[in-house]
Amino acid sequence: MRDVTGLYREFGDERLPPGQREVERFPVLSMGETPDWNPETWTFDVGGAVETARSFTWDEFRDLPRETQRQDFHCVTGWSKFDCEFTGVTATTLLDTVGVASDAVHVMFHAIDGYTTDLPLDAAARDEVLFAWSYDGDDLPREHGGPLRVVTPHKYAYKGAKWVDGVTLLTEPERGYWEQRGYSVTANPWAEERYS
């Protein structure tokens, strides 16, 4: 297991970002209802400014090289959970698999329920950004984004889409669901970048 809980040193002086409180339980916050999914028909689609667009089945996605990481999780509503263990595919592994086009600058994450969120390519193409299907050794619970969610320990958690089923690499920035509604584009917890 790789421990990335020291990531905060890149952004601030304290592990707990300002304005956050540490919690023991993992609260559930979502845009809407938990969507249904079928592992037989689910696909994960990668397209846009890539060298090879790909559509992965559930089994194909889980056959990609995996990693388990210990991460901290920061919600924009003011709570943080330390030492979460997530298993999945790193963003760098996924992007290396499809190849990133030279003019790609931005990433849009898409989810089963229609949710979207965006990150600049340099903020998304990090080993700590994980497409996770396991939490603390068990399948990721549906209410927490199972079968697959993005975790972004260097950003507020709305940058990590629940129920994610694809990414599009973009040549110009676009805004996701909450970003269009006034949430911060940068979402740095240590600078308390909650809203635009």
From TrEMBL:
Q: Which domain of life is it from?
A: Archaea
What the entry lists under CDD domains is as follows: arch_bact_SO_family_Moco (cd02109)
Residues annotated as domain Oxidoreductase molybdopterin-binding: 32-178
> Where in this chain does the entry annotate a coiled-coil region?
none
Q: Name one Pfam family in it.
A: Oxidored_molyb
Recorded protein name is Sulfite oxidase and related enzymes
Species of provenance: Halarchaeum acidiphilum MH1-52-1
